Model the fold of this input.
Amino acid sequence: MRLVLLGPPGAGKGTQAARLVEKFGLLHLSTGDMLRAASAAGTPMGLAAKEIMARGDLVPDDVVVRIIEDRIAEKDAAKGFVLDGFPRTVAQAQALDAMLAARGEKLDAVIEFEVDAEKLVDRIVKRAEEAKRAGLPVRKDDDPTVFETRLAAYRAQTAPLSAYYRETGFLKGVNGMEPIDAVTRSLDSVLDRHTHA
Done:
């Protein structure tokens, strides 16, 4: 099963990705982690990425896609993967589709976490307050001002992906504002319908 999770920061993608990994034996692919791992491993693509990141530049789409391709060719990806944080743009989605097509594969579904932006800010503020009360460090991106900036960047850059994937027929939506277990049940229902379609 090959899945992409879409949704703004704070929508619960990471939490649900962990549950999908556990339930289906999928590989959770976080592009940030993959870039760091490839760079540490010294693979040709990893070294190229390391040099680019050292300059403070964004790693080009073709390099990221090659690193994903290398990673999904490994044995632990045999049952499939959950991509979280990639693609971020339509160009990246097209590059991912082309790479999978060249391998004779395609995505099974793109799950979009549908959320209310204002309530999402409240959720993040609450998460930060709970962390403070518990004596835990507050995530930098849980600052409401930082979060608003990330949300605006998501809307501008990543939201057009919804339209792209809707056209391809891969897009499925779940209500990301529900409690965690309810979101998991919605996801299970969407994937169950898909796998038995």
